[in-house]
Amino acid sequence: MTRKQRLYDLMARKQKISLAAMAATTRTTARQSADMTATMDRLGDLLAETKDGLDRVRTKADMIAAHWMGSELACHLDRTRDHVLRLESELVAARAKLAQAEHRCGLYEDRADAARREARDMADARRQADHAPRRNAAAI
Description:
Elements: H1 3-52, H2 60-131
Helix pairs in contact: 1-2
């Protein structure tokens, strides 16, 4: 194994290790985004229920409580929506970074293979040169 080939093999291994970490981060971000989207849907349903329940308001205290609940749910829904948008942009960036790392890993593996072939070709050429019939310089 040549130094060049070993270097590219090590670089490919290092890239594969970082690929695993990036993939785990991407999966975590995707899971968080899905969870937050589900939370956002539930909050939207609760807000709709709160708006539908306004016709049952009887007293001033009920009206204050319904208003407070609606405004809290709306505020939380906005924060959750912003969080989902941020997570989705992080997810897009993580997937792009993951694709670049996969491409880089493939390049390192290809270069290691090329170095392996080059070393094999050089060894074959040396072997053929060693086994080639030698001409006697004195006979010429």
